[in-house]
Amino acid sequence: MCGIVGYAGKKQVLPILMDGIRNLEYRGYDSAGFAIIEPNGKIKSVKSVGKISALEEKINGTEVNGTTGIIHSRWATHGGVTEANAHPHHDCSGSIWLVHNGIIENYKELKSHLVKKGHKFTSETDTEVVAHLIEEIKKSQKLTLPEAVALALRQIKGTYGLAIIDSHNPGQLIAARNFSPLLVGIGDGEYLVASDASAVIKHTRRVIYLNDGEYAVLSPDGFEVYTLSSRPVKKDIKQLDWDMEVAKKDGFAHFMLKEINSQPEAIENSIRGRLIADEGMAKLGGLESIKEKLRDVKRLHIVGCGTAYLAGKVGEYMLEEYAQIPVKTEVGSEFRYKKPVFEKGDALLAISQSGETADTLAAIREAKEKGVLTLGIVNAVGSSIARDTDAGVYQHIGPEIGVASTKAFTSQVTILSLLTLFLGRQRAMSLVMGQRIAGEIKKLPALIKEILKTDSQIKKMSQKYSKYGNFLYLGRKYNLPAAFEGALKIKEISYVHAEGLGAGEMKHGPLAMIDNNFPSVVIVPKDSVYEKNISNIQELKARGGPVLAIATKGDKEISKLADDVIYIPKTLEMLTPVLAVVPLQIFAYHFGTMKGYDVDKPRNLAKSVTVE
Ligand code: G6P
Asked: Is the pTM of this model over 0.70?
């Protein structure tokens, strides 16, 4: 996601900020900017859309002096990719400047309150509201900057990593954190703030990690950490023993593993502010403007490629069962050429992490050509698909760097469950059913955390199965697409042949291949098709085929039948793919690394496929 670097010390700050933000480039971004307190007490800020090099070009030749400053690389969430929306943002007086990672959920309410008080906003971002709120509190209550920051943050709902400077307090830097990573590097008479250790490591290995709801006041004279109720907190100084490459991966060996492990947080970000659990509803801001049009949708075409297509397939099952909307899901590359038949009341939903996949984009254009309403579930804000669709929902999961998609899939399926709630409650879904679904969606991050704890057990499993060169991945109903996704993961990163299959289709051909050298991975949670799956496992065992089952915790029967079992927690049937796919990602990850492959960059594949 976005990158933050801040510095308060005695050295010239600009080269330190530029170097720090370059180390965060790998996270992906669309614009960048800095603010520095100059010796004359004024703030110098420069922003630019595009690469850090564009920012460097812009300042080329201009002298910027100062020893306190902040810099940011933005991955847009609220507001398009423009210079005005790039950070840092400032208050009306131009003295308070800040950079922010995360999402301010109640920014609309806060903004309208501040506008009434006369504040003038210059961007479309949620972030700017924080600068004005601090200004308002500081002025009206005659407080110091740290006091005003604490009071302002108590009014904010949402997530933040913040670095704040004020020209009235030269030399001071404030950092605050709530569910967005932020650490403080402790040097000799100098302090750095960063969203990621890789921006700090060159200057110091001594760091403190802020906890949620804490803020730090830093200056060359020292540092203090407080809670938002201004209680001082004693922090332990930790020693970073990572090298730069490991730091970028948050200590994980690969981006893919980091992304697998970040799924609880990613899903949290995808659902934040969108679930109204007690009303059994989903609030999807991006669809508000077409809410009434959505009532008239009679049929939905879902389009995506690769993993995004498979997420769409899960959505098809959800939307048909709970929103009673007929859904047809297709890969973009087929959709664009097959002359799809559209009828009145049709809408098209495109799903894409990058928002740039050529075949998906072409499908949208085809539908638009025919006057069909187009929607998107997209991660990259301002991407082609986000711009080309009439309305949509952003995933808010930050960039996915590993070529094999992981967190994008679980987030897309989760958003599809929100969409099912949204459209279902517009139609026949009862309040009780809505509440039930919403309640279960809320639990997903915690349930994924449980699965992540079984990594070493799954690793042993991939060691055991690494001798095989072919796999069947079987599932039914909601977990049919999850089986395909499991097979896709192992193909992508370990170059081993794996075939996803509806378990019911096994007898119509593929069963002929099964012998004791051909294992199957069967997704068999305790759901409405459990007994059917059990019969299929029996058929596999009768032919000597090894079986690795993904089953629901507490299922004793399965351990007697399958050779090996990985357990996942219980959830609503429609949400099981979000859980079932996680052990399959981990299984594939270890399978690929064991073979010595670069799992982040599999051979022959690209992260974003912008050609046909
Ligand atoms: C590529 C990636 C896949 C991804 C697919 C669709 O093939 O390697 O991981 O699922 O494109 O990408 P999108 O950005 O549209 O989700």
From this structure: yes
